[in-house]
Amino acid sequence: MIRLAQEQDLDRVGALYGALLDQEETVRHTNWQKDLYPTLAHAKAAFEQSTLYVGEEGGALFGCVNLNQIQPPEYANIHWNFQAKPEEVMVIHTLCIHPDFAGRGKGKEFVHFCEEHARTKNWPVIRLDTYEGNFPACRLYEGLGYSYAGQTQFHFQNVIWETLKCFDKQL
């Protein structure tokens, strides 16, 4: 079940980030870094905005995502496939699946949830970005009908420059 996060979920979201970042030390799919991004503070900020969602199965937290309409400034560099007013766009941020649940279709489940959430809000376009080396995420999004829109340099947490691939989908 995927639902809006509750305050008691925050420590588990922080633990999920930690488990994912520990795995990233050996299998690098993102450019995320421990104590930089994502952190518990990022989860708390999303929670306070009521944009943090969690997936739970059998009492275990299997994933989380931040869904909002905040488009990073770098999105202006992208020639999007689907034009929309800012208020018509939902952005998927920091979609994380706990390593213990990897390969079980949980990422796909979360993306479907995001799409249904956008439909309920009457947001016809979804946009997202992912690290250029995150091949599993790129395959996931493309396999679910997202179109590659381009890539650009992002100043990650104002510390690291990185190239992110951008995708969009019209619902």
Describe the structure.
- The chain has one domain (2-170): Aminopeptidase, CATH 3.40.630.30.
- It is built from four helices and seven strands; from the N terminus they run βααβββαβαββ.
- Helix content is 28%, strand content 32%.
- Strands 1-2-3-4-5-7-6 form a seven-stranded mixed β-sheet, with helices on both faces.
- The mean pLDDT is 94.
- It is α+β, with helices and mostly antiparallel strands.
State the strand order across the main sheet.
1-2-3-4-5-7-6
Distance between the termini: 22 Å
Q: For the record, what CATH class applies? A: Alpha Beta
Q: Please, what is the CATH homologous superfamily?
A: Gcn5-related N-acetyltransferase (GNAT)
CATH architecture descriptor text: 3-Layer(aba) Sandwich
> On the 0-100 scale, what is the average pLDDT?
94
Write down the secondary-structure element order: EHHEEEHEHEE
| Range of helix content | 25-40%
Layout of helices and strands:
Elements (H helix, E strand, L loop, with lengths): L1 E3 L5 H15 L15 H9 L3 E6 L2 E9 L20 E9 L8 H15 L4 E7 L3 H9 L3 E10 L3 E11 L1
Parallel strand pairs: 4-5
Antiparallel strand pairs: 1-2, 2-3, 3-4, 5-7, 6-7
Structural key phrases:
seven-stranded mixed sheet; Aminopeptidase; 4 helices; single chain; 171 residues; alpha+beta
Give the structure's gist in a few sentences.
By secondary structure, the protein is of the alpha+beta class.
